[in-house]
Write a sequence for this structure.
């Protein structure tokens, strides 16, 4: 597999999933601290209190990145470290951690790609309504402006949000992620304010005249019909509208998709759009980050409003029960390019969860290697068709805190023994290392 020479290969993580040190150097409580300490919310009562202890072991982890041969590292900044109250006075000691990390990355020649928000909202903001409260978007803009200014000489590529669909719908609609709310109107409002905050951060970036590029990362799941019937094909359109277009259209077209807007409206639910919001949300950006794991097979069904059901997978699944379907990545990249292009695309997350076993100091995770290899291949096919794919980051560098599943679900190419913090390269990491060596 020969990819373009300038394709930026990398690996990705997120603050709450790996850092630990939740009370260090003035960090405040986040919604995930509160949620994970609430009995019954996270499998086995796991929390991110220690996670991979990356806060203290970042140098060792950056060394591993250098040994792998990656060119870019995507991580997220913890808002509760940098602006502990969510608004107002920043905490320089919190930012210092990221300066140390950036120093280390710079020494090894690895490009940093920070995400401003990967779900760890300061709890104090949640106490005032969180993303349902429009003020949170303004506080996000202030936090972003501060960070852009502090790091403008150090960072050339920024991501505003990671997967706002999850932050809004899993957090405020289905209640399975922090803050654990179950209210669809709140979820729609949260989604809107997340989008507004993205646009406000892009504006702050422009106002500062920051060099570098900025974009958003969306989780996108192509929808496939369970059958050829017109009912199933109509369900696919609604599934795509809810899962993909609800975020893509505002960001790239400045409108919510009419078909889904009308569905919500008929049920008395609507995003709290104010004058100029759609222009703010659709400010031009430099790239789109795509997180791809699987496809969905859908048909006409019982889900309220959307009247659809997700059908069982056809091909083998990972431990998340997510069907392994590399062609979905190919089709997604092609579709994004056709419908929303021409914008540079980055696969900002792709990877697989399996039940890994340690055999005499080795982790023979052939399934993960095959998963990566087949998805790389799908990406290459899209590039060959003219899709401007500029980067590809494997999720994840390390096994980590997989949200409501705690430490039960391993996505890393590097195994972490959470009792001892020992890191062990899985076979997939060795494969990625030799793949990268072959690309240079
Ligand atoms: O671990 C998550 C990550 O935080 C966001 N994207 C999906 C990954 C796997 O579930």
């Amino acid at each position: 597999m020969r990819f373009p020479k300038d394709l930026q290969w990398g690996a990705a993580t997120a603050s709450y999933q790996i850092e630990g040190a939740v009370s260090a150097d003035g960090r405040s409580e986040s919604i995930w601290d509160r949620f994970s300490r609430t009995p019954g919310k996270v499998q086995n009562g796991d929390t991110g209190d220690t996670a991979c202890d990356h806060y203290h072991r970042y140098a060792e982890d950056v060394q591993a990145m250098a040994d792998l041969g990656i060119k870019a590292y995507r991580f997220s900044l913890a808002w509760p470290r940098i602006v502990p109250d969510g608004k107002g006075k920043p905490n320089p000691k919190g930012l210092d951690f990221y300066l140390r990390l950036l120093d280390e990355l710079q020494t090894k020649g690895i490009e940093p790609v920070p995400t401003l928000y990967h779900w760890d909202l300061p709890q104090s903001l949640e106490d005032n309504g969180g993303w349902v409260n429009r003020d949170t978007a303004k506080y996000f803009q202030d936090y972003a402006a501060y960070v852009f200014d502090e790091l403008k000489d150090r960072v050339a590529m920024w991501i505003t949000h990671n997967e706002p669909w999850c932050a809004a719908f899993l957090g405020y609609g289905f209640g399975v992620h922090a803050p654990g709310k179950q209210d669809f109107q709140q979820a729609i409002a949260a989604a809107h304010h997340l989008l507004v905050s993205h646009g406000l951060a892009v504006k702050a970036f422009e106002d500062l005249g920051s060099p570098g590029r900025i974009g958003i990362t969306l989780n996108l799941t192509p929808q496939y019909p369970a059958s050829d019937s017109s009912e199933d094909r109509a369900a696919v359109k609604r599934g795509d509208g809810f899962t993909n277009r609800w975020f893509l259209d505002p960001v790239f077209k400045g409108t919510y998709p009419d078909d889904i807007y009308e569905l919500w409206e008929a049920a008395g639910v609507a995003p709290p759009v104010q004058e100029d919001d759609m222009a703010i949300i659709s400010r031009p950006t430099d790239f789109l980050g795509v997180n791809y794991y699987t496809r969905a097979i859908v048909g006409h069904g019982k889900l309220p409003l959307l009247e659809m059901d997700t059908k069982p997978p056809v091909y083998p699944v990972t431990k998340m029960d997510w069907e392994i379907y590399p062609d979905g990545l190919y089709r997604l990249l092609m579709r994004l390019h056709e419908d929303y292009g021409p914008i540079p695309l980055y696969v900002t997350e792709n990877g697989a969860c399996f039940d890994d076993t340690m055999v005499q100091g080795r982790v023979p995770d052939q399934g993960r290697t095959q998963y990566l290899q087949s998805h790389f291949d799908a990406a290459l096919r899209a590039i060959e068709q003219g899709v401007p794919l500029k980067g590809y980051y494997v999720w994840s560098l390390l096994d980590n805190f997989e949200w409501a599943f705690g430490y039960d679900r391993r996505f890393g190419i590097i195994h972490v023994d959470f009792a001892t913090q020992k890191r062990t390269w899985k076979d997939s990491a060795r494969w990625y290392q030799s793949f990268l060596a072959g690309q240079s």
Q: What stands out?
A: The chain has one domain: 8-439. The mean pLDDT is 98. DSSP finds 15 helices and 13 strands in the chain.
